[in-house]
Design brief:
With 286 residues, the chain is an all-alpha fold. The chain has one domain. Helices cover 74% and strands 0% of the residues. It is built from eleven helices and no strands. Helix 1 runs antiparallel to helix 2, helix 2 crosses helix 3 and helix 3 packs across helix 6. The radius of gyration is 19 Å and the shape is globular.
Length: 286
C-alpha cells in the first residue's frame, strides 16, 4: 500500500465517523435539510483536502485539468450528490440496501483485482453488513437504514467512485481491468440512485421548489403508483443497476466519448417509458 493510499484510508475512516454522527443526530433529533447539508461539508472537505480524494480533470471526455478551486467545488458537488442519493432513494423496503449492495460488490471486486486490497476489504465489509441488514429490511421490514446508514453508505460510495475514476484512468492501457471510459463506467456503478437524485432535483427546480424538500417524485414512487410492491421494485431497480454495470463491462474498450451518450440515451429511454406508463395508468383511472 502506498503512502498516498494509507493517507486516504485514514481520513476516509475519520470522515465516515463524522457522517455516522451526523446521520445519528438527524435520526434522533431531525435536522433541517440546510443545516444537515452544512454539516456534511466538514467530512467532505476533510477527505478532499487531507485524504486527496478529488476529481482533477474531465479525463477521457477532454484533456483539460481543473484548477485547484474548480477541482474542490466540483468534487464537493459530486460527493454531496452521490452521498445523498442513497438517502433520497431510501423510501421503500430493501431498495437502498439492494442498490448499495450491487455497487459495493462490483467496486470491491475491481479494487481487489487491481491490488487495492484495503479498499476491497472495506467494500466487502459493508457488503456483508448490508446483506445481513437486508434480511430484516426486506418487505415487510422490521428495521430501517435511517440517515445513519444511508449517509454512511452514500459517502463511502462517493469516495470509492472518485478513487475508481482516478485509479482506473491511471492504469496501464494493457491492464485487463482498465475501463477506457472512467466517468461513464463510474456512473453505471451507481446509475439508479444517481439518476433518481438528479431527476427529482430537476423536477423540484422546474417547479420552483427547494431541491432539499422531500416529495413523491422519486422513481420508486412512480412504480408504486403503477401498482408494484416494495420487493418487486427493489428487485427491478437492482436488476437495472446490474444491467448498466454489465453494459459498462461490455463497452470497457470504448472511451467516454462513445459510452456516455449510450448511457444517457438508455437512461432517457427508461425514464420515458416510466413516464409513459404512469400517464397511461392515470388515464385508465380517470
Amino acid at each position: 500500500m502506498s503512502s498516498e493510499d494509507a493517507t486516504m484510508n485514514k481520513y476516509l475512516f475519520s470522515s465516515l465517523a463524522l457522517f455516522f454522527v451526523i446521520g445519528l443526530r438527524d435520526d434522533i433529533i431531525p435536522m433541517k435539510p440546510f443545516y444537515k447539508l452544512i454539516g456534511q461539508l466538514v467530512p467532505i472537505i476533510l477527505i478532499i483536502l487531507l485524504g486527496h480524494v478529488r476529481l482533477e480533470s474531465f479525463y477521457d471526455i477532454g484533456n483539460i485539468n481543473f484548477s485547484a478551486s474548480f477541482s474542490l467545488v466540483i468534487t464537493i458537488f459530486v460527493i454531496i450528490v452521490i452521498t445523498n442519493s442513497i438517502n433520497l432513494i431510501d423510501g421503500i423496503d430493501g431498495l437502498a440496501g439492494s442498490l448499495s449492495l450491487t455497487s459495493l460488490l462490483v467496486l470491491g471486486s475491481w479494487f481487489y483485482l487491481t491490488n487495492d486490497t484495503d479498499l476491497a476489504f472495506i467494500s466487502f465489509t459493508f457488503v456483508g453488513a448490508i446483506m445481513a441488514f437486508l434480511v430484516y429490511n426486506w418487505s415487510p421490514s422490521k428495521i430501517f437504514m435511517g440517515d445513519t446508514g444511508a449517509l454512511l453508505i452514500g459517502f463511502l460510495l462517493s469516495a470509492l467512485v472518485i478513487h475508481f475514476i482516478n485509479k482506473n484512468f491511471e492504469l496501464d492501457n494493457n491492464s485487463a481491468f482498465k475501463f477506457s471510459a472512467s466517468i461513464s463506467t463510474a456512473m453505471c456503478f451507481i446509475i439508479v440512485p444517481l439518476t433518481d437524485t438528479l431527476r427529482v432535483f430537476i423536477i423540484r427546480l422546474t417547479k420552483f421548489k427547494s431541491p432539499l424538500i422531500a416529495d413523491n417524485n422519486h422513481i420508486h414512487h412512480s412504480l408504486l403508483r403503477l401498482g408494484l410492491k416494495h420487493s418487486s421494485i427493489s428487485v427491478l431497480l437492482a436488476a437495472i443497476n446490474i444491467l448498466f454495470i454489465v453494459l459498462a463491462i461490455i463497452l470497457k474498450g470504448l472511451s467516454d466519448v462513445f459510452v456516455l451518450p449510450i448511457v444517457l440515451s438508455l437512461v432517457g429511454i427508461l425514464l420515458g417509458l416510466l413516464h409513459y406508463y404512469e400517464l397511461k395508468s392515470q388515464a385508465e383511472k380517470a
